[in-house]
Amino acid sequence: MKRQPQIVGDVSKLDDYAFGSGTISWWGVTGFMLIEGMGFVLAIGAYYYLMHNEVQWPPSTDPPPLFWATVFTVALVATEIPNVWLTHMAKAQRLQPVRWGLTLMTLLGLAVLVLRAMEMDALNVRWDRTAYGSIVWALIVLHTFHAITDVFDTGVLATLSWTHDMTGRKFSDVADNAMYWHFIVWSWVALYVVIYWTPRWL
């Protein structure tokens, strides 16, 4: 006689979403950050390799000016306050705070990109003038592209939150997006030290 399969549990009522490492999207974002982080590590390695081969660093110019870079850095780090709050609201699945939090983070992201434009305009070396200029511009532009990507993603999530129903999976996406912004902020802090303070310390 053929044995009937035994049902050991009913999982049909479990949620089809999760937060953190229980989701594929979390692992995808984490992998993305690891790949991009390695790109930064390689570019920073190139920066210090070039410096090792120069008598003076930077060659033929003064260290990059601090004002706009520091304003950008302080503003970027300050965005972590609403970003952390938004993460908590997303995990609590509170719709209205998440809507306003996404909208605020989009506006703040656009504001820091304006500051980034000011920083780039104030740089005292062209990208095509020396190897030093090339690597400095490469580091800043690389980070800028990542920041633009996340601001765009945040804007899309903000639009969807106001125009569509927010399911648990969408709240999970908001939390993952906020995690990527952590990467944007703290990777820049490391780059800020490399680009703006290495020439002043060494």
Descriptive report:
By secondary structure, this protein is mostly helical. The chain contains six helices and no strands. It has helices spanning 24-52, 67-78, 80-91, 95-122, 131-163, 168-201. Helix 1 runs parallel beside helix 6 (168-201) and helix 2 runs antiparallel to helix 6. The relative contact order is 0.18.
Question: How would the blueprint of this fold be written?
Answer:
Elements: H1 24-52, H2 67-78, H3 80-91, H4 95-122, H5 131-163, H6 168-201
Helix pairs in contact: 1-5, 1-6, 2-4, 2-6, 3-4, 3-6, 4-5, 5-6
Element order, helices and strands? HHHHHH
Unreliable sequence segments: none
Distance between the termini: 82 Å
**3D shape:** elongated
Q: Which range best describes the helical content: under 10%, 10-25%, 25-40%, 40-55%, 55-70% or over 70%?
A: over 70%
CA radius of gyration: 22 Å
Number of helices: 6
Largest sheet: none
Tell me how many strands there are: 0
Return the average pLDDT rounded to an integer: 91
Strand content: under 5%
Give me the secondary-structure category.
Answer: mainly alpha
At a glance:
The protein is mainly alpha-helical and 202 residues long. The protein is built from 6 helices and no strands.
List the main descriptive attributes of the protein structure presented here.
202 residues
